[in-house]
């Protein structure tokens, strides 16, 4: 059963790296915008970028974990059932 859905399995195996990449892109993009403001508004913008980066990392990890749960459910429902003794 391991040979089914190899791309989804790759996403699940590299979840931390993918979430870090998404968070890195959000952080770098937001930092550029925050640095261009300067002053107190730049600091507030930077703090907001940090919060949004954490949210992006969390949502990416949650989406990949949902894929893992759905794949596990699919594997267990398609697995041959154990033979039960007749009463």
What's the layout of helices and strands?
Elements: H1 6-13, H2 15-37, H3 39-78
Helix pairs in contact: 1-3, 2-3
Indicate the proportion of strand residues. Answer: under 5%
Please state the average pLDDT score: 85
Q: Percent range for helical residues?
A: over 70%
SS elements, strand count: 0
Question: What does it look like?
Answer:
This protein has 87 residues and is mainly alpha-helical. Helices cover 82% and strands 0% of the residues. Helix 1 packs across helix 3 and helix 2 runs antiparallel to helix 3. The chain is elongated and about 75 Å long. The model has no long low-confidence stretch (mean pLDDT 85).
């Amino acid at each position: 059963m391991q040979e089914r859905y190899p791309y989804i399995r790759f996403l699940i195996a590299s979840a931390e790296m993918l979430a870090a990449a998404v968070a890195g892109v959000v952080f770098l993009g937001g930092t550029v915008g925050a640095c261009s403001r300067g002053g107190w508004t730049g600091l507030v913008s930077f703090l907001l970028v940090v919060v949004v980066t954490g949210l992006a990392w969390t949502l990416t990890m949650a989406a990949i974990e949902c894929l893992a749960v759905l794949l596990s459910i699919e594997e267990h429902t398609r697995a041959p059932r154990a033979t039960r003794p007749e009463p």
